Amino acid sequence: MQLSLNTTVYRKERREEKNRILCFAPAGDRENELINLYPEVRYQSFEGFGGALTDAAGYVYGHMSAGDRKKLIQAYFGKDGMQYNRVRLPIDSCDFSVEQFQAVSGKEDQKFETFSLDREKQYIYPLWEDIREVVQNIEVMVTPWSPPDFMKTNKRRVQGGHLKEEYRASYAEYLCRYIEELRKTGVPVSRMSVQNEPKAVQAWDSCLMDGQEEKIFLRDYLYPAMEKHGLADVEIFIWDHNKERVWERANEVIDETTAHMVKGIAFHWYSGDHFEALRMVRDRFPDLKLILSEACIEYGKFSADNEYANARKYAHEIIGNLNVGMNAFYDWNLLLDEQGGPNYAANFCDAPYMYHRGRQELRERTSLSVIGHFSKYIRPGAVRIGQSSYTDQLETTAFINSDGSIAVVVFNRTEEVVPVTLRIGGECVSWAAEPDTLSTGIITE
Q: Are 401 and 379 in contact (CB under 8 A)?
């Protein structure tokens, strides 16, 4: 066997990449400094990586040159790039929009006579159409941030509020109509979440929905409406919020009346690791899909200048989630401007690509490289395999791809050199993991 090892150093504002071919040798009685891989032990399958097509991303994309547009699309979706195979689209506006908007403009238009997706077509569709030129088989997830304003208790898209009980049936029809219209325009929606961040009152589009409300809306209104409209093939995900309460929401919503309606649980990373919570959900509901549906570096919490430290958060997060059962990973905005927007609520964030409109310069951020250490090697359909490590100084995960190759990722987040000996059965291979390095190896016969 041989190991094709790609290693990137993320340290002291520098990034260095090294590629090596290492050959396995007999392990003998070696006991120390081992990372063991067990291909015969199998866990969850993995669907792939992706990002969000927001109004903001589309707006910035529209200001770029044809050359920069091509570069960005190829970097994310090309066969030699990140190899993304899925995207997430907001239903109506979210904070990463140039402005607030919704598909109905008429006052209390319950018959949807004013329904139109023209606003989405303004910025998002040109980006979507260019993506489809590069990759045809792409999964699309949609998520609502807020019902139309007249359906809410506070009569606003922003600052939380609840969906009024008398509008539950109408809102279910609204969501079905939205998916139908997207599909008519060639956007193959295959999954949706019920509500983005249902526990948050935000200065931007938001709506509160506790566990009982989500369960009632799903069971009595949304799922029946989707069946009626021939949309039963669309996978439904609940929660779509931070991990610290994912266990509670799963148990509040899923029972004998709803289990067949829920395909999985979506989660975010903004409240910390909580990998144990995901593991409990995986153990309690082994057939559910667990997807990280949104992740980014918020400038309100983390400095935009600390790029390398921010990027390393992705490595820790992805490995931790994969090792407790994650099935797919969606980054947030594919593209933002130099400020981390546009964002009408001034909630600026980082993105793997940022475009300086004044200088007309497209810049790759370090997070793109970190995500690539996973997305380029752990292919759709790969299955996580068993592993054990001799030290918590190294964070590791491993998958077997459909072609039989094994992808193993090793993250040394310490400031010390840590020795690594990778062992499979009776063979092993060794290298020194430099400080602040992310290494991805492909093992082949």
A: yes
What confidence score (pLDDT) does residue 399 get? 98
Determine the pLDDT at residue 13.
67
The residue ranges of DSSP E strands in 338-404, in sequence order, are 353-356, 361-364, 383-389, 394-400
Q: How far is CA 308 from CA 220, 251, 321, in A?
A: 47, 38, 20
Query: Which two three-digit tokens encode residue 240?
Result: 């779509």
Asked whether 20 and 109 are in contact (CB, 8 A), the reply is no
Q: pLDDT tens digits for 54-66?
A: 999 999 999 999 9
Strand-strand pairing, 139-144 and 86-91: parallel
CA gyration radius, the chain? 22
* Cα distance between residue 252 and residue 210, in whole Å: 9
Is this model's pTM higher than 0.90 or not?
yes
Question: Residue 306 and residue 366: Cα distance in Å, rounded?
Answer: 10
Which residues lie below 8 Å from residue 31, measured CB to CB, with a gap of 6+?
none
**Cα separation of 396 and 322, whole Å?**
10
pLDDT of residue 106: 74
Cα-based distances in Å from 209 to 144, 235, 241, 242, 252: 12, 20, 11, 14, 12
Is 90 exceeded by the pLDDT of residue 288?
yes
Chain-centroid distance of CA 78 in Å reads: 18
**Bridge pairing between strands 34-45 and 383-389:** antiparallel
Name, in order, each residue with C-beta under 8 angstroms of 141's C-beta and a sequence gap of 6 or more. Answer: 86, 87, 88, 89, 189, 190, 191, 192, 193, 237, 293, 330
